[in-house]
Every structure is written in C-alpha cells, then in structure tokens.
Design goal:
- The two termini are about 25 Å apart.
- The mean pLDDT is about 95.
- The chain is globular, with a radius of gyration of 22 Å.
- The strands form five sheets. The chain has a nine-stranded mixed sheet with strand order 1-2-3-13-4-14-18-16-17, sandwiched between helices. Strands 11-12-20-19-15 form a five-stranded mixed sheet, with helices on one face.
- A hairpin with a 5-residue loop joins β11 and β12.
- It is an alpha/beta fold and about 425 residues long.
- Helix content is about 25%, strand content about 30%.
- Bound molecules: zinc ion (ZN).
- The site of zinc ion has 6 residues, from α5.
Length: about 425
C-alpha cells in the first residue's frame, strides 16, 4: 500500500502546480468514483446514499457522502490547497539594459526564498478570458523549463554564506529571456490557454518548481516533492474519503484555499464555505435548524495540515519531550494558547480513531521559547463550531519549494481518514463520547 499511494501522491503533486489544478484534479478523481458535481449557484437535490462535491473559486473543494438513513453528525477532515509561491504581477515584463527580459513577481505566503534560486521554474495558474456574452476561466500550465532566478556569485558577496536577507522586489525576479522575449509573456500565456492575447482580461499566475517529486533514502524511507504542505494531507484525506463507508454520519472531505495568507478569503477557512455546505446538506435532507445544530454538536472535525518532524541537523529546535519523526505516524498538535484546536477530549477521540485504524500517532508541541505557525482549524471554528483536533504529517523544510516527508505517513493518514469518515463520534454533553 505504501508504494502505491506514494506514487499516486507524487503523480497528483506533479499535476497540481497551483490550488486551481489541485482542485480540478480532486474533482476528476471524485467524478471517476461517481460523485456528482453541484454548483453553489443552483438548487441542490440530494439523495440519501449518494456522493456529491462542490467548489468555490475553483480553488477550494468540499465533497460529501450522504448516508442511507437519517444522520447523526458531520465527520469532517479539512486541509488546504495552497502553498507559498511567487505570484506574477500585472504588466510583468521588465527590460534589463535592452538585453534581458525578467518578470515582476510578489510573494504569496511565508516562503523560504533561497530554494527558489538556481533551478528551472515555470508558470501555472488560471487566466480569465473574454467569451461571447461573458468571461470564462482557463487553467494554464506551461509544461516546460522556462524561468530561472539566478543567485549572485559568491565573488560579488563574500558574506553570502553568513546569512542573507532576501528583498523579493530585487532578488527574486525570474529571468524570462533575451531581448527577443519582449512582449512574449502574454503571447505565451494566450497560446497555452488557446485564446487570442487581446481576449485575456486577467490572470492568477504563479511560478512553480519544475523538479518532480521522488522517493529517496537507502530503503525508500522518504519522499521529497513540491507542495507536500498541504497537498499530502489533502490527498490522504481524499483517498480515505473515497474508500470509506459512512454509516450514520455525513462524511465531508474539505479542502480550503488561502491558508498561507491567513484564510480570510471567500474560499478560505474564515469564510462561510464549509458552513454553507453543511447547512445545505442538512436542509437538503429535509431537516431543520435544530437538527443542524445537533449534527454539529454530534460531529467531529480533523484539521489536517503538515507538521514539523525532528530535523536531523537541528534536533535542538524541537520540544524536549515531544519528538515527531518521519514515518512515525500522524502528528497530533497541541498549543496551550489554542493556536491548535486540540484539547484532551478531541485528542483522545482522535487517538481512539487511530487505534481502531491500526495507525501510529505522535505528538507535537512547540518549544516554549519558540512561536509556532498557525493553521486552519481554529479559524474554522468561528463558522462551524465542531469538536476539533489539529493533526498533520511530519515533514522537513516546510515552505521550501521542495519539501521532505516520510514514505509511510501518507498511507497512515489515509487509513485514519477512512476510519473517521466511516464512524461517528457522539457526545452526550456530559463528558462521555461514543466513537463507533
Ligand atoms: Zn499548511
């Protein structure tokens, strides 16, 4: 199972250079399994026993399976579709001394800058084009080595190895071509989208790393690839979802966008997307507001976003007693200040799900003298107050454009997700929970 799921994951990552592509690819996987696409702008007619999915902004996706009989609660796993990247600005071309053309970019999310240098890059995203009677979005992926952001030679900065402060406006602009490339960028994108240049009205285009994902280590212990944070969790959640057999709960696979920039968009965790979908599932099954609130109270949500593994060269950066390792299983994240939603109850529920699934788990807490990152879990709670746990898969080099993770862990999360989606967690409001 480990090898197959890793190959599938790497294939998925190679074809998902942006959140738009990731969502399109998940949609295709769902349709292959008979899931029906719904639109937020049209009425929904839901049938018990069937599966559906809906997207927002083409960059967030929620899929759900309606159980055959009346349901108890919602069983949700949420992850995010976006990763830090360099976004191409409008009017991108900059001429350099009438000899070169480079592209103007800005940062999307909190990336490590250095890994983007000195490697083949290309462009992907969406363009919005004029169509008779309106506009339409087109996915674009330039599938060849196209751009490079060259480092400065050490001879011109002898202190380069003593730490460097990157200025994105100056240091991170990719070289696009010689002077002959002038006015060529829009032309290239129009060609890729199969439209005329003048029909392009706007675009969301990002640089992406051309290096494909791979398996490494003496015994293939590790995988390395772009965008493991958080497409590794999104993919594992979907695999678990597709193999689950929900009985008395609504299984919900949820992938939100814009986690890397604070989640405050229409398709992010702070939006109404998840709440709106759960609401419509509830009313679509002929149930009222009180039943909706009961289903929330009886539900459970796993916020799945990758976690930091112990670094082989930097062991002192981690907490002294909580030591997550790659291939050690799913990481449950804790924070006394509730940067993560996990508490003793949700942690215990998740551990019992892992035990039922036969999957190992480990724990993460930040060093007490170090601020950690945040994630989408507690942002979601203001819209959908489900009992929630924060977990992730252990990885290294988070927010690099090429990250490393364990080759066993994707399968562990897929198994735990299947268990979550096939079960139901019911609280009696009195501190006792049934996990069945
Ligand atoms: Zn993440």
């Amino acid at each position: 199972m480990f090898e197959t799921i890793n190959q599938e994951l790497l294939e998925f990552l190679n074809h998902s250079p942006t959140s738009f592509h990731a969502v399109a690819n998940m949609g295709a996987m769902l349709e292959q399994e008979g899931f029906v696409r719904l639109s937020e702008g049209r009425p929904w007619e839901l049938e018990a026993g069937k599966g559906y999915y809906v997207t927002r902004n083409d960059s967030a996706l929620i899929a759900f399976q309606v159980p055959k009989r009346d349901f108890a609660g919602f069983q949700v796993m949420a992850s995010h579709s976006d990763s830090p990247a360099l976004k191409i600005k409008a009017n991108a071309e900059i001429l350099v001394e009438q000899k070169y053309v480079k592209l103007n970019v800005e940062k999307y999310g909190g990336m490590l800058c250095a890994p983007w240098l000195d490697r083949p890059l290309s462009v992907a995203g969406r363009v919005v084009v004029r169509r008779p009677g309106g506009i339409a979005a087109r996915l674009v992926q330039v599938d060849r080595d196209l751009l490079i952001i060259p480092n400065l030679a050490i001879h011109m900065n002898r202190k380069a190895n003593e730490g460097y402060e990157f200025n994105v406006q100056k240091d991170m602009l990719p070289l696009f071509g010689g002077i002959g490339a002038k006015d060529g960028f829009l032309q290239l994108i129009a060609g890729e989208a199969g439209v005329e240049e003048e029909d392009i009205l706007d675009m969301d285009l990002f640089l992406y790393n051309r290096m494909k994902g791979t398996v490494l280590g003496l015994d293939g212990e590790f995988i390395a690839a772009p965008r493991l944070d958080d497409l590794q969790c999104a993919f594992a959640s979907l695999k678990g979802f597709l193999s689950a057999r929900p009985k008395e709960s609504v299984a919900v696979h949820c992938v939100l966008d814009n986690e890397e920039v604070g989640s405050g968009t229409r398709q992010g965790a702070a939006s109404t997307f998840l709440r709106d979908v759960l609401h419509r599932v509830n009313s679509g099954m002929g149930r009222g507001e009180e039943e909706y609130l009961m289903a929330l109270a009886s539900g459970f949500m796993v916020s799945a976003d990758n976690a930091h593994s112990i670094h082989p060269n930097q062991q002192d950066k981690a907490d002294p007693t909580n030591r997550p390792y790659m291939n050690g299983g799913i990481v449950i994240k804790y924070s006394a200040n509730q940067k993560y939603t996990t508490d003793a109850v949700s942690g215990a529920v998740f551990k019992s799900l892992c035990q039922k699934a036969g999957v190992p788990y480990q724990t993460f807490v930040n060093r007490s003298d170090m601020l950690g990152g945040s994630t989408l879990g507690n942002i979601c709670t203001s819209q959908v107050a489900l009992n929630m746990v924060d977990v992730g898969l252990p990885q290294l080099a988070m927010h690099s454009c090429y990250e490393t993770a364990g080759s066993k862990d994707t399968a562990y999360l897929a198994k735990a997700a299947r268990e979550l989606f096939s079960s139901s967690v019911c609280g009696d409001g009195d501190g006792e929970y049934q996990v069945r």
